[in-house]
Design brief:
Structural class of chain A: mainly beta
Largest sheet of chain B: 7 strands, mixed
Oligomer: heterodimer
Number of helices of chain B: 1
Radius of gyration of chain B: 13 Å
Helix content of chain A: under 10%
Number of helices of chain A: 0
Radius of gyration of chain A: 14 Å
Number of strands of chain B: 11
Order of helices and strands of chain A: EEEEEEEEEEE
């Protein structure tokens, strides 16, 4: 079983829809959670970063962490065609720099297509 | 800043040939990472350097892979001899201690390798 599971999709939605992207994980030590966005033929770029359970909002994006269920989500409101990309979750067992660098463990990514 | 620069962007080679991928990190960044991305395995960390010193190479698949960082502005990932199963997109990423607090990595655009 992979440490981080993510449905690869593809997920196709109409413009304006609310999108929900999810990851589950098995290691209860994971504490720091990130979402990266990767456009086609490009490298991933950090979208959001959260620590601990709860919600974090940034514009149309909301990251949610539920440690009791080992489940994280990224919600995109009023989705736009420019949101079409692959979204990768990533996490570390501790602070990224505690005791040396803590490697990010990435999910496989979910491909999202938002059509006009 | 120009960002992380990788070359070549595309490489097609035949099995048994030597492949060298190159990376120029963002100026001032003291961490450099090499990742490999495939559909099957997602994004995997191969090796990372801190201040030009290899810290963790546990992700390097086998002895055919080697990486060097002769100075702060240049790194190479070499595969010799190459095999078809090495076909993937290889990403270089860099960062500093300060930005790693958020788990952020700055990725290049990747080198797409096809081994026939």
């Amino acid at each position: 079983q992979k440490e981080v599971e993510q449905d690869p999709g593809p997920l196709s939605v109409p413009e304006g829809a609310i999108v929900s992207l999810n990851c589950t994980y098995s290691n209860s030590a994971f504490q720091y959670f990130m979402w990266y966005r990767q456009y086609s033929r490009k490298g991933p770029e950090l979208l959001m970063y959260t620590y601990s359970s709860g919600n974090k909002e940034d514009g149309r994006f909301t990251a949610q962490v539920d440690k009791s269920s080992k489940y994280i989500s990224l919600f995109i409101r009023d989705s736009q065609p420019s949101d079409s990309a692959t979204y990768l979750c990533a996490m570390t067992p501790g602070h990224p720099l505690s005791g040396g660098y803590n490697k990010l463990i990435f999910g496989a990514g979910t491909r999202l297509a938002v059509h006009p | 800043d120009a960002g992380v620069i990788q070359s070549p962007r595309h490489e097609v080679t035949e099995m048994g040939q030597e492949v060298t991928l190159r990376c120029k990190p963002i100026s001032g960044h003291d961490y450099l990472f090499w990742y490999r991305q495939t559909m099957m395995r997602g994004l995997e960390l191969l090796i990372y350097f801190n201040n030009n010193v290899p810290i963790d190479d546990s992700g390097m698949p086998e002895d055919r892979f080697s990486a060097k960082m002769p100075n702060a502005s240049f790194s190479t990932l070499k595969i010799q001899p190459s095999e078809p199963r090495d076909s993937a997109v290889y990403f270089c990423a860099s960062n500093t201690d300060r930005d790693l607090n958020t788990g952020e990595l700055f990725f290049g655009e990747g080198s797409r390798l096809t081994v026939l």
